[in-house]
Amino acid sequence: MGKTTNVIIATAAGFVAGILMAPKSGEQTRKDLKKKAREMKVRANGKAETLKEAARIAGDDVKVGADKAGKEVDGMAKSARKSAKVVAHEATVLSEEAKTRAGRVVGEAKRTAAAIKKDTRSVR
Length: 124
Description:
Helices cover 94% and strands 0% of the residues. By secondary structure, the chain is mostly helical. It is rod-shaped and about 140 Å long.
């Protein structure tokens, strides 16, 4: 049990013990007990309403936080998709450039090989 519950129980027990020990008539004691029971019920209902309101507010805060987090995640996902498209485009451009350069190197190698072959024939 929580501290608040323990305090309420101890208070109620103390009150009942005090009423039972007081020099009052049985009828007066019963009236006092009923009155105190009503007061405790009103207090408990007030506390319950306060707790319900606090729980509602906390729930609303959690929902707002979750909504913000969801929007943030959506934004990051969009940014990641955009970045992925940019990287894919850059990779395509670089791949095409590499093919072009490789073609030039192959062409130069073929020309060099042909020139060497021609030179070796003329030396013979």
